[in-house]
Amino acid sequence: MGVQNSPEASLDEKAVIAAAERALSDIARVRQEVAKVIFGQESVVEQTLLAVLSGGHALLVGVPGLAKTKLVATLGTVLGLSASRIQFTPDLMPSDILGSEVMDQDENGKRSFRFVPGPIFTQLLMADEINRASPRTQSALLQAMQEYHVTVAGRPNDLPRPFHVLATQNPLEQEGTYPLPEAQLDRFLLQVDVGYPDLAAERQILLETTGVSDAEAEPVLSAARLLEIQTLIRQMPVSEKVLDAILALVRSARPGNGDAATDRHVAWGPGPRAGQAMMLCARARALYDGRLAPSVDDVLALAEPVLQHRMALTFGARAEGMSVRDVIAGLVRQAGG
Predict the structure, then answer these.
(1) Angle at which helices 68-78 and 42-53 pack, to 10 degrees?
(2) Where do the H-state alpha helices sit in the chain?
(3) S-S: 296 plus which of 202, 227, 245, 301, CB 3.0-4.6 Å?
């Protein structure tokens, strides 16, 4: 106990609190700027920002025309990140994303290969309709998302830091699509479901976006400042109670762990990466809400975006018309939500 009461420890604690309060005001300004351009959709904006603040990637699932692309472009501006967009199509090749080697010839006639980087060499990558590309192209993106470098002609090329993929997927159009493999889905920290705006937000959209000029967001952070906030989030304390809640929730979603409803309805459940995502996002959500430590409520609120793409239902559960969301809602109720 003597160590905790030492002047160094209290000074360190004060420094952490001061850093957290600075981050709180930065995040509040980010939220303000995004709200100038994206109307309503608070939970979509929150979850997408949580994924980026936690240092991860997000998969945005929703029908066309719900401002998913606009949200990603706005985040690039507000967070001070270089951004690029790739429209995924069935004929897209890995080299269209990663880049390729071209042969150069100097004035003496000597030839050499030069690497021309592809659009993936950016800090915020918008991967539009990711499930329309072939598995080979998807796997090229998978390596980048996991290892933060890409291999071209046998040589690794590091990606810029920070590096985030915000991918979109249209749930309606299943013709000519290649569903993402489980391993790739697991690389996304969160799956963000983008629904239709409510009446008030849709009214505002009609008024604000059909005039002579649209509102534009201003930069708030820089890439370096975002990295500082991401580091701070990893340093935030997590209580034993919150840690136990994360473990209990993630493990209850796996068959064979003593939960009768899960055993009946779930074919396979989330792995340890789900718990890691929950730990990071719960801390980020606390900061996003203006708090210095996460609570069990943060864990329960994040259950759906963290777990839904890391689980699959049994044939029987699907035949009964159940969805993964129904199963997760039951687990959250059971956990005291």
Answers:
(1) 50
(2) 7-37, 42-53, 68-78, 94-98, 135-147, 182-185, 199-209, 223-235, 240-252, 260-265, 272-288, 296-301, 303-307, 315-319, 324-334
(3) 245
Q: Which of these, 154, 156, 179, lies nearest to 169 by C-alpha position?
A: 179
Give tens-digit pLDDT for 52-79.
888 889 998 877 766 777 788 888 888 8
Distance CA 304, CA 59 (A): 13
Question: pTM, whole model, 2 decimals?
Answer: 0.82
Which of helix, strand or coil describes residue 22?
Answer: helix
For the segment 127-159, what is each residue's pLDDT rounded down to a tens digit?
Answer: 888 888 888 888 888 878 888 887 776 777 788
For the ranges 39-48, 57-66, 171-180, 312-321, the lowest mean pLDDT is seen at 171-180
Residue 93: partners with Cβ closer than 8 Å, 6 or more residues away: 137
For the ranges 106-120, 178-192, 233-247, which has the lowest average pLDDT? 106-120
Domains belonging to the chain, first-starting first, are: 12-209+221-235 (3.40.50.300), 238-337 (1.10.8.80)
